[in-house]
């Protein structure tokens, strides 16, 4: 069990990343009841956006200096795509039966993946993402790489900012209102269209931050990186209680830790020797999802909402 | 007081009707003639369009188009009885569409020649003549008057509105005299024979350019027949004689191997059948019960792997060789079991969650199959290498691997499997039809329409959803067992969510939706298109998935009900024509 | 009217339903006797539809017991229909893209048993069952006057006929108790009178009726007894005449008159 702090550290870092991406899913679902299937690709595009900025800067620029610009680049790219998608693909389908926006989202997801694969230079394989060189840090018995520190700082910052935004600003409160009852919100003069755009924007921005973290941690970005990660992030959103932004982060952390523990410890369980390790971690993530949906479908922080038939 | 009849609307190009007809007729005849000329000087462009007097390759497409245009243009001037026969809903829309199709196909050919060979210099005078003649035909057709009733005022309409009006079919014609049953049966048989010919031509195209030309003309041609009112007529007949229709369809399909001289395209056709059958199975889940299953291909995989494991393949971990009927039953049972295992916990969830969970299961299946390779798990499935070398089927002494002869025509390995698969397809179609038209089918549709109301009617929604899900799984399992034998391997990578080679879950869903949910012909047609187009137009290899994604987006935006319209669905997605009285707010 | 001596068909006591901090229904007792038409009135938001949802298993009340024909009410809606309670909805919930006949056939679901296997095999039993179902459905369409429209899509029906179809569909399950949620909302006087006749005829066939309504004349003409729900609680109950004259009921609808300034 000496590995525990390390596994926990891994889990928290992974979980923070899932959590940031999950925010995007949960905000959009909370307001328009749409699973934005393409959100994983928004995450991926954020990563590529950051990479582009990095490549555009002179080669000698220290990473620490370049990082804010890369983040800005990633956010710009992700937000641009997200807002365009909302405006041209999702908005026209607001009143349509549930299937239509979902299929559109799937199509968008595939199209975005392929567009990057085809047109981003050398994107057919993974592209190298800059990483911090230097020694890892030792915190509380666990080894943390420098790149991972970024996430440990960025995630709480983002969450705090978001929390303040939602509870203290007019727009934020308008967002809460729209999530609860869009028709009434509109009647009260809240511009629901604008709120929706803002939700997409925030989600995309957070996903871009997560993508930069992903790049810093793994040293690469790949056109397929959005698919499984996106799926897991949605799992995290559901785990935490869909529509609840704190739930999204909590769900992300729970999922990340569960994944890390599963990778580290499942093979110690008698009979399961072959089911631990990296190849099965995705499976365990899904198993967790199914368990949660069976036992507590509203998620950890969700509330039972009455269906006023 | 002026007379009640409004003046017929001006067509896109204002010409006196006589001139319009004359232009169209002349143009069509000329276009026809130019197909006998040489369009290019080199045989580098496939199809050999270099010989005067013998239309080849894409020229035959233009030839067909011109002939049909001529036919419909003449019908406009024919006695009313002939008009009612060929174009009961009006002659202008089909003529215009056919002229448009011929024009598009011809100019596409000329463009392809120019681009492929590198310059306009490669076009012979015959090509230019064809271009001009088809343009002339189109011009004439655009000037044809349309007698359809106008809905907007006739003065000062934009050219686009005028074009749309020219394409509007007239009021639904009175139902035709009922023909004696034998005549109606013959009509149905002829229609399906024609369909077979059309499909065979498409499958047999050797090169992408020909397929594109074929696609252009077929699409506009079918649209033309639809606007002429002929498809509605056929619909009446097929609804009246459902069993005959089914027999005709499957006889036509069974004749396909007989039209082939070698096995290459039968292979393609068999794959299309597998894909189509699985799509139809998904149609039960998505189209009837409204359950969004994004991991459906996993059930195909379960069936395939089960069959592979009991097939006697040397790489199979189970050293067993079941007779075929047992393998099929085992495959179905395995899929059914997995369907229930997956459905039971998840079908109580909201539809959106179901989508994600099924997607997850699809991925879990693939990952598990890859991982059970002896290193990261017990060696059951041989991991990423899969289970190859599945032996040929041998049912009652009939060896599927060898070529047999029927009426002197050789039917090779793929022909044999094609016919076997066709039996499976027939089973699935029958299951689908009978299920829809029953208490269970109605309950499924009710759940799809309004689950709360359905439960208030006493429907146990969970049980029925599970039934639909399990049935869908079982049908996919059936197709999977045969699929495994056709391609002789089962590997995990064949069963992904999205990939370049169908079947995969995204393509399957697209086939069902593109074709038309809830109908029988819809998914079959959708599957055929989605399989054929990527495999024929392989010069678009890199762009395939990108275009696929874009196509999904556009489809949902502009025609979410799909190609074959279940009359229910079209009303669901578009405004109803007859305004219904809305309840005034109390 | 003389009190009904038969044992109650539906007996609900102490029903309380809360949603988060809001108590929508508080300690409501309700009894419906066989062959009775009971009206349920009250201002908007009084909790009438919520009560309906509790009586049909859509909601599980936080407190209270409900029995039907002496047995406790099942908790799942489809089981409630099976034991004999059917309902219509305040906002019409037909199956819009199914025909009128198909809608009614779906209503018969709980009284028929042929399963998928018999449908796939097209057994003679299946054919017989389908035939019987269609007969029942057609008869109900005649009863409600919708025969001519039996092949029309439910979505295309005019409003008044949609309401009738909902009733026909609910009757298809042969209920002992029919719950009607504002059946005459948005109707003109002729349609309202026609609905009155229909409900009388339904009672004559042996089905008790519990009806939520705002149209007082309708209630007065139709109901044997009336219960009044205000802000989730039952204010009073009695014959239409008694209830109509009760000053508390008037106050609930119209508000108390201003205090006389002196």
TrEMBL record, chain A:
The keyword Transmembrane applies. It is found in: Cell membrane. It is a multi-pass membrane protein. InterPro entries: ABC_transp_permease, BCAA_transport_permease. Keywords: Amino-acid transport, Cell inner membrane, Cell membrane, Membrane, Transmembrane, Transmembrane helix, Transport. The chain crosses the membrane at residues 12-35, 42-60, 66-90, 102-120, 149-166, 195-216, 236-262. GO terms for biological process: D-alanine transmembrane transport; L-alanine transport; L-isoleucine import across plasma membrane. The keyword DNA-binding does not apply. GO terms for cellular component: plasma membrane. One of its GO terms (molecular function) is L-phenylalanine transmembrane transporter activity. Belongs to the binding-protein-dependent transport system permease family. LivHM subfamily. This is Branched-chain amino acid ABC transporter permease. The lineage of its organism: Bacteria, Bacillati, Actinomycetota, Actinomycetes, Kitasatosporales.
TrEMBL record, chain C:
Residues 10-256 form the ABC transporter domain. InterPro entries: AAA+_ATPase, ABC_AA/LPS_Transport, ABC_transporter-like_ATP-bd, BCA_ABC_TP_C, P-loop_NTPase. GO terms for cellular component: plasma membrane. GO terms for molecular function: ATP binding; ATP hydrolysis activity; L-isoleucine transmembrane transporter activity; L-phenylalanine transmembrane transporter activity; L-valine transmembrane transporter activity. Keywords: ATP-binding, Nucleotide-binding, Transport. Pfam families: ABC_tran, BCA_ABC_TP_C. One of its GO terms (biological process) is L-alanine transport. PANTHER family: AMINO ACID ABC TRANSPORTER ATP-BINDING PROTEIN, CONSERVED COMPONENT OF ABC TRANSPORTER FOR NATURAL AMINO ACIDS-RELATED. This is ABC transporter ATP-binding protein. It comes from Streptomyces mashuensis.
């Amino acid at each position: 069990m000496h590995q525990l702090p390390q596994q926990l550290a891994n889990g928290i870092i992974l979980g923070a990343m899932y959590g940031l991406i999950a925010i995007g899913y949960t905000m959009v679902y909370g307001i328009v009841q749409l699973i934005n299937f393409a959100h994983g690709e928004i995450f991926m595009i954020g990563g590529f956006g950051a990479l582009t900025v990095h490549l555009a800067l002179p080669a000698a620029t220290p990473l620490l200096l370049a990082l804010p610009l890369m983040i800005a680049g990633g956010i710009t790219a992700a937000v641009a795509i997200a807002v365009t998608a909302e405006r041209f693909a999702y908005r026209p389908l607001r009143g349509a039966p549930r299937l239509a926006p979902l299929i559109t989202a799937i199509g968008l997801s595939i199209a975005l993946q392929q567009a990057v694969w085809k047109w981003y230079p050398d994107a057919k394989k993974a592209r190298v993402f800059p990483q911090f060189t230097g020694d890892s840090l030792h915190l509380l018995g666990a080894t943390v790489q420098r790149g991972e520190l970024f996430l440990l700082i960025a995630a709480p910052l983002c969450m705090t900012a978001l929390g303040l935004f939602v509870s203290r600003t007019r727009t934020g409160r308008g967002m809460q209102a729209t999530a609860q009852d869009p028709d009434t919100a509109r009647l009260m003069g809240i511009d629901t269209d604008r709120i929706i755009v803002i939700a997409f924007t925030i989600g995309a921005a957070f996903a871009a931050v997560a993508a930069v973290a992903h790049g810093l941690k793994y040293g690469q970005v790949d056109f397929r990186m959005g698919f499984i990660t996106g799926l897991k992030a949605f799992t995290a959103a559901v785990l935490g209680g869909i529509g609840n932004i704190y739930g999204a982060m909590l769900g992300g952390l729970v999922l990340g830790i569960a994944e890390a523990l599963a990778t580290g410890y499942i093979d110690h369980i008698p009979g399961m020797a072959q089911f631990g390790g990296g190849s099965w971690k995705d499976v365990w993530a899904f198993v967790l999802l199914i368990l949660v949906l069976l036992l507590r479908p509203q998620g950890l922080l969700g509330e039972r909402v009455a269906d006023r038939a | 007081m002026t007379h009640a009849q409004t003046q017929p609307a001006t067509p896109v190009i204002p010409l006196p009707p006589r001139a319009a007809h004359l232009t169209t007729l002349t143009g069509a005849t000329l276009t026809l003639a130019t197909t006998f000329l040489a369009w290019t000087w080199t045989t580098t462009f496939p199809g050999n369009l270099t010989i005067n007097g013998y239309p080849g390759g894409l020229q035959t497409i233009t030839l067909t188009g011109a002939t049909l245009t001529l036919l419909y243009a003449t019908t406009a001037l024919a006695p009313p009885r002939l008009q009612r026969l060929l174009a009961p809903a009006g002659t202008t829309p089909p003529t215009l569409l056919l002229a448009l199709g011929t024009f598009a196909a011809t100019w596409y050919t000329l463009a392809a020649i120019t681009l492929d060979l590198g310059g306009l210099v490669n076009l012979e005078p015959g090509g230019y003549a064809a271009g001009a003649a088809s343009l002339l035909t189109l011009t004439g057709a655009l000037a044809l008057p349309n007698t359809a009733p106008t809905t907007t005022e006739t003065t000062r309409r934009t050219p686009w509105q005028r074009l749309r009006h020219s394409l509007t079919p007239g009021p639904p014609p009175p139902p035709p005299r009922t023909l004696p049953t034998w005549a109606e049966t013959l009509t149905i048989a002829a229609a399906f024979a024609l369909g077979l010919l059309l499909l065979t031509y498409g499958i047999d195209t050797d090169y992408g350019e020909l397929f594109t030309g074929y696609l252009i003309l077929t699409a506009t041609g079918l649209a033309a027949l639809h606007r002429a009112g002929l498809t509605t007529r056929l619909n009446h007949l097929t609804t009246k004689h459902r069993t005959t229709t089914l027999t005709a369809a499957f006889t036509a399909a069974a004749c396909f191997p007989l039209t082939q001289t070698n096995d290459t395209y039968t292979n393609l056709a068999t794959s299309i059948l597998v894909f189509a059958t699985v799509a139809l199975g998904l149609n039960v889940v998505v189209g009837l019960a409204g359950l969004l299953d994004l991991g459906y291909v996993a059930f195909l995989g379960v069936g395939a792997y089960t069959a592979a494991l009991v097939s006697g393949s040397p790489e199979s971990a189970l050293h067993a060789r079941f007779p075929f009927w047992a393998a099929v039953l085992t495959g179905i049972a395995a899929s059914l079991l997995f369907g229930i295992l997956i459905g039971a916990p998840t079908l109580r969830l909201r539809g959106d969650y179901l989508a994600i969970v099924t997607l997850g299961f699809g991925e879990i299946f693939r990952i598990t199959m890859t991982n059970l390779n002896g290193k990261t798990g017990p060696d059951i499935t041989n991991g990423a290498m899969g289970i190859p070398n599945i032996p040929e089927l041998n049912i009652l002494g009939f060896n599927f691997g060898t070529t047999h002869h029927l009426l002197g025509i050789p039917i090779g390995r793929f022909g044999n499997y094609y016919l076997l698969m066709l039996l499976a397809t027939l089973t699935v179609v029958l299951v689908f039809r009978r299920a829809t038209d029953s208490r269970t089918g109605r309950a499924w549709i009710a759940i799809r329409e309004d689950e709360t109301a359905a439960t208030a009617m006493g429907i146990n929604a969970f049980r029925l959803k599970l039934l639909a899900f399990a049935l869908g799984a079982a049908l996919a399992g059936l197709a999977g067992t045969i699929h495994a034998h056709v391609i002789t391997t089962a590997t995990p990578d064949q069963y992904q969510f999205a990939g370049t080679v169908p079947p995969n879950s995204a393509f399957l869903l697209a086939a069902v939706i593109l074709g038309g949910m809830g109908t029988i012909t819809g998914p079959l047609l959708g599957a055929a298109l989605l399989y054929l187009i990527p495999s024929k137009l392989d010069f678009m290899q890199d762009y395939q998935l990108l275009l696929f994604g874009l196509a999904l987006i556009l489809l949902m935006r502009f025609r979410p009900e799909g190609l074959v319209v279940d009359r229910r669905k079209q009303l669901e997605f578009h405004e109803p024509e007859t305004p219904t009285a809305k309840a005034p707010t109390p | 009217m003389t009190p009904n001596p038969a044992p109650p068909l539906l007996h609900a006591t102490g029903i309380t339903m809360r949603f988060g901090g809001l108590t929508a229904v508080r300690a409501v007792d309700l009894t419906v006797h066989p062959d009775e038409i009971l009206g349920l009135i009250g201002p908007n938001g009084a909790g009438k539809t919520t009560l309906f949802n509790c009586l049909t298993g859509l909601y599980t009340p936080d407190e209270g017991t409900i029995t039907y024909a002496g047995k406790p009410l099942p908790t799942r809606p489809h089981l409630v229909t099976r034991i004999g309670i059917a309902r219509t909805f305040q906002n019409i919930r037909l199956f819009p893209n199914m025909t009128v006949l198909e809608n009614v056939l779906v209503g018969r679901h709980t009284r028929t048993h042929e399963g998928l296997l018999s449908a796939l095999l097209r057994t003679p039993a299946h054919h017989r069952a389908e035939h019987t179902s269609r007969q029942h459905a057609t008869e109900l369409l005649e009863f409600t006057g919708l025969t001519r429209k039996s092949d029309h899509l439910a979505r295309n029906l005019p409003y008044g006929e949609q309401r009738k179809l909902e009733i026909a569909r609910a009757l298809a399950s042969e209920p002992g108790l029919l719950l009607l949620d504002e059946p005459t909302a948005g109707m003109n006087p002729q349609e309202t009178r026609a609905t009155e006749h229909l409900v009388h005829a339904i009672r004559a066939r042996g089905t008790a009726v519990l009806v939520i309504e705002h149209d007082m004349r309708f209630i007065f003409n139709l109901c044997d007894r009336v219960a009044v729900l205000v802000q989730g609680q039952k204010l009073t109950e009695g014959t239409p005449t008694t209830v109509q004259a009760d000053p508390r009921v008037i106050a609930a609808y119209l508000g108390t008159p201003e205090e006389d300034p002196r």
